[in-house]
């Protein structure tokens, strides 16, 4: 389940219980998934950041409005450090379909473009938790920061490929930060950073009962009391994962 486009067992939600190496992760629908951490589990933590934390060579996941050609006005920016493989859309997470902002299509549009308005299957405007509506010119970018100048970034953004054998492509996207941009950074963490009430995302292997033995765990803080994910944390919300909802036990 960990190769190709098939997602590995994954769960995300609020940490409702913590007993030794066993976690109870509560999804938005109220269902709990049991997650077991081991000595080989790796940890990341998402914390708040500022524009001064962004440096050339960093990886950024941007969600906002605009287009790849005209530039993106950032609603959220998540900063990570490159791995040995460079910028990966989810360095500690599962091989999800469209994982990471810019990794999937937003509504009917093309990745990172303005595209037509984002609509739900019945044709009505898609709304996020809290009632806000996804803008019609939603845009995203993911890749390496090639330059930083004040509130403006130049990002060497990865272009999602439809064919796994296709050579990876990039394009230069200008990203502008505003006073309402929410910035966060993902840094290395440890088991001691786990706390009841925090948000966790875990992936690894699952047994016949659905218990996940975690290969990796990412920790973050709730936004408005919720551990909602998707769309790079949403528009006007905190940071989180982007792209398509994760598959696996109790996806949110």
Describe this structure in words.
With 252 residues, the protein is mainly β. The N terminus and C terminus are likely disordered.
What key attributes describe this structure?
disordered N terminus, 0% helix, mainly beta, single chain, 39% strand, 252 residues, 12-stranded mixed β-sheet
How is this fold's topology laid out?
Elements: E1 10-19, E2 22-26, E3 32-36, E4 42-48, E5 59-67, E6 71-80, E7 138-149, E8 152-159, E9 169-176, E10 182-188, E11 199-206, E12 212-220
Parallel strand pairs: 3-12, 4-12, 6-9, 6-10
Antiparallel strand pairs: 1-2, 1-11, 2-3, 4-10, 5-6, 5-7, 7-8, 8-9, 11-12
Shape: globular
Mean pLDDT: 77
The major sheet is characterized as: 12 strands, mixed
Question: What is the chain-wise order of helices and strands?
Answer: EEEEEEEEEEEE
Helical fraction equals under 10%
Unreliable spans: 1-6, 92-122, 230-252
Distance linking N and C termini: 19 Å
Q: How many β-strand stretches? A: 12
- Radius of gyration, in angstroms, nearest whole number: 17 Å
Number of H- or I-type helical stretches: 0
Structural class: mainly beta
């Amino acid at each position: 389940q960990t190769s190709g486009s098939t997602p590995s067992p994954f769960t995300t939600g609020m940490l409702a219980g913590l007993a030794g190496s066993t976690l109870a992760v509560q999804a938005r629908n109220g269902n709990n998934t049991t997650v077991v951490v081991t000595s080989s589990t790796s940890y990341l933590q998402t914390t708040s950041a500022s524009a001064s934390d962004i440096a050339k060579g960093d990886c950024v996941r941007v969600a906002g409005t605009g287009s790849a050609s005209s530039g993106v006005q950032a609603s959220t920016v998540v900063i990570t450090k490159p791995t040995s493989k460079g910028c990966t859309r989810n360095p500690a997470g599962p091989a999800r379909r469209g994982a990471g902002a810019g990794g999937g299509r937003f509504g009917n549009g093309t990745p990172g473009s303005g595209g037509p308005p984002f609509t739900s299957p019945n044709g009505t405007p898609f709304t996020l938790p809290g009632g806000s509506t996804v803008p019609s010119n939603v845009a995203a970018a993911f890749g390496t920061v090639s330059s930083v100048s004040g509130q403006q970034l130049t990002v060497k953004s990865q272009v999602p490929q439809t064919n796994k054998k296709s050579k990876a492509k990039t394009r230069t996207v200008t990203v502008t930060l505003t006073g309402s941009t929410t910035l966060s950074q993902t840094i290395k963490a440890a088991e001691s950073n786990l706390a009841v009430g925090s948000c966790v995302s875990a992936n690894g292997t699952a047994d016949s009962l659905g218990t996940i033995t975690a290969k990796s765990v990412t920790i973050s803080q709730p936004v408005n009391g919720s551990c909602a994910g998707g769309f790079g944390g949403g528009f006007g919300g905190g940071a989180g994962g982007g792209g398509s909802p994760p598959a696996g036990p109790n996806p949110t």
